[in-house]
Specification:
Chain A is of the alpha/beta class. Chain A is 40% helix and 20% strand. Chain A folds into 2 domains: 156 residues, D-Maltodextrin-Binding Protein, domain 2, CATH 3.40.190; 131 residues, D-Maltodextrin-Binding Protein, domain 2. Chain A contains 13 helices and 12 strands. Chain A is elongated and about 65 Å long. Chain B is an all-alpha fold. Classes of the chains: A alpha/beta (311), B mainly alpha (307).
């Protein structure tokens, strides 16, 4: 697979990859959700290009964009699309960016493994639970046939890209969420919380759920097209309603540097294999090809369509 | 009371004690003292038990992963191949630089405030501020470091910027403890030196400072241990999480042990949590090593200081 990609890409661009020795720095920062993929790419790239110094930071999608728009890094890992305020911030510093989708991440709704009454949940029910000022306290408040037990809620805190995504996608408004739940930026804390409490519910990244699917139970989500289980297949093909693309944003000025150009190309060639290996879902096959196309042509700005999204 | 015995000073005191109601009270007070001893013994045991539990848990998780490869490899997406080399070297470089900057500045400031300065309003204000600075959360120092060292002084996101930030962070602790140490040097030492014609500077450098040094080192050990364990301010200053090369200069990018451990501990796969525990053991080792050096120096200095 990898060799085919490499050959395809050598053929179509007539640039023999990794032929001429390249050096210099490639600086990445941003989302800790995208970090495992970027780390894997950096590791493989570094093994083949020993004189290129790649660093990957984890200061969050927003924190990364601050550095990106200050011209301090070459590439920002982002678990959401760039915001308008961030675009204008970049414009002020005359930083153009190329948006490159690299993988798909789902968001899983999880309950305690012994919970047998919740088999699926609708988006409306999720909204009722999580909207600001929600009055839902017991499972029976949501569905009279469910037990009269308190729902113990676990979710990421407001600095997380996962929180942003959930608020916008489920509640329908940026940053809108109830606040009386156990919050942590560390998914491991959420996982342990849900696994230890019989009537708990929580949400976090799909990759985290897949790695721990024996400790918690993933709940199927229904948005009117039937209940969709949070499986790898459903996330990858976009039928699972709570899935989002992950991006890297490449500074146009940096993309002109040979080491950054080679790194991004290498990223797109290996992303399919490495995103799977690190617990994410790859884009559909043409996703990487069109991303590479856009990058090679140097198309700046946001991509018009979200790859792999439900529409 | 036997009034027939001759009354000597010893017997009178003794009998006065024996014949008063104090006797009963003494038993009760002894009993109270025993209870108090028991309580503080329990408190110590509890603290040790918690420490022991933590160490046992970390040891159980991390020891199987701790080997020479782990120490000499760069990080990797595969836990079995991942190592802590760049973080260990980063932490070591930063702590050496931080130590030099903080000790030179901190001890100088303490000497000025304790030995040289007049007790006027400005100095009182400085003292008050230093005491306040000791209570500021480390993240705030990170923001200061980002604005001053990374951007204004243009050190970039480098080892130098990180070391300066950590040095500023631990300065208050070093200054306060160094002043305490200077205060324990008896005034007679200063007066004797001055009386023999030594200048203020000679007195301080040759007599007061060596005498205070062991006490100062205790504060320095605590401060440096704290700096070694910090992750939050360094993430702000620009510590990266993945780095697979060693620094060429102090203006190079870096990562440190706490940043690497924090990242591994947050990964979904259990092997990463195990190598996080192995990383904690390495960090503990580094803290013990640096403290060991400082304790050795302190012991040698204490031997020398015999008036």
């Amino acid at each position: 697979m990898n060799i085919r990609h490499l050959a395809l890409f050598c053929g179509s661009f007539a640039v023999p990859a990794l032929a001429a020795p390249i050096n210099g720095q490639v600086r990445l920062d941003g989302s800790s959700t995208v970090f495992p993929i970027s780390e894997a790419v950096a590791e493989e790239f570094g093994a083949m290009n020993k004189s290129v110094r790649v660093t990957v930071g984890t200061s969050g999608t927003g924190g990364g964009f601050k550095k990106f728009c200050a011209g301090e890094i070459d590439i920002n890992n982002a678990s959401r699309q760039i915001k308008d305020t961030e675009i204008s911030e970049c414009k002020k510093k005359k930083i153009d960016f190329i948006e490159v989708p690299v993988a798909i991440d789902g968001l899983s709704i999880v309950v305690h493994p012994s919970n047998s009454f919740v088999t699926k949940i609708t988006k409306d029910e999720l909204k009722k639970i999580w909207e600001p000022g929600s009055k839902i306290k017991l499972w029976s408040d949501l569905n009279p046939s469910w037990p009269k037990e308190k729902i113990a809620l676990f979710g990421p805190g407001p600095d997380s890209g996962t929180f942003d995504y959930f608020a916008e996608e489920v509640v329908g408004k940026a940053k809108a969420s109830r606040t009386d739940y156990t919050s942590s930026e560390d998914d491991n804390v959420l996982l342990k919380g849900v696994a230890a409490s019989k009537f708990a519910m929580g949400y976090f990244g799909h990759g985290y759920y897949m790695a721990n699917s024996k400790k918690v139970k993933g709940v199927a989500v229904d948005v009117g097209k039937g209940a969709i289980e949070p499986t790898e297949v459903n996330v990858a093909n976009g039928t699972y309603p709570l899935s989002r693309p992950l991006y890297i944003y490449v500074s146009a000025a940096s993309a002109a540097k040979p080491q950054v150009k080679e790194f991004v190309k290498f990223y797109l060639e290996t992303a399919k294999r490495l995103s799977t290996e690190t617990g994410y879902q790859p884009l559909k096959d043409d996703g990487y090809k069109s991303a590479l196309d856009r990058f090679s042509k140097g198309v700046t700005g946001k991509a018009s369509t979200k790859p792999g999204s439900k529409s | 009371m036997n009034t027939e015995k001759p009354i000597t000073p010893e017997t009178s005191v003794r009998e006065a004690i024996l014949d008063t109601p104090f006797k009963d009270n003494l038993d009760r007070r002894n009993f109270n003292a025993k209870i108090f001893n028991l309580v503080i013994l329990l408190a110590t045991c509890l603290a040790m038990l918690i420490l022991g539990l933590l160490l046992w848990r970390i040891g159980e998780q991390g020891l199987p992963w701790l080997n020479w490869n782990f120490i000499t490899s760069f990080p990797s997406r595969m836990a079995a191949r991942a190592g802590i080399f760049s973080a260990l070297i980063g932490s070591a470089c930063i702590i050496i630089l931080t130590g030099i900057i903080a000790v030179v500045l901190g001890v100088s400031a303490a000497i000025y405030l304790e030995e040289m300065s007049a007790k006027n309003r400005i100095n009182q204000l400085i003292e008050l501020n230093i005491a306040n600075l000791a209570g500021i959360p480390s993240l705030v120092y990170g923001m200061l470091g980002l604005a001053v060292f990374v951007r204004f002084l243009n050190f970039g996101r480098s080892i130098m910027a990180a070391a300066c930030t950590l040095a500023i962070m631990i300065l208050p602790v070093i200054i306060i403890s160094s002043r305490e140490a200077l205060r324990t040097v008896p005034p007679s030492i200063r007066l004797a030196a001055l009386a023999l014609g030594a200048t203020k500077w000679q007195t301080t450098w040759h007599h007061v400072l060596p005498a205070a040094m062991p006490g100062m080192l205790t504060g320095i050990i605590l401060a440096i241990s704290r700096a070694l364990g910090e992750a939050a301010p360094l993430i702000l200053v620009g510590g990266v999480t993945y780095i697979a090369f060693l620094p060429n200069s102090v203006y190079d990018s870096f990562t440190t042990l706490p940043i690497q451990i924090f990242n591994w501990a947050g990964r979904p796969q259990e092997e990463f949590q195990a190598i996080a525990a192995a990383g904690i053991i390495v960090l503990l080792g580094l803290v013990l090593f640096t403290n060991g050096i400082a304790i050795l120096i302190r012991a040698r200095l204490e031997d020398k200081n015999r008036w």
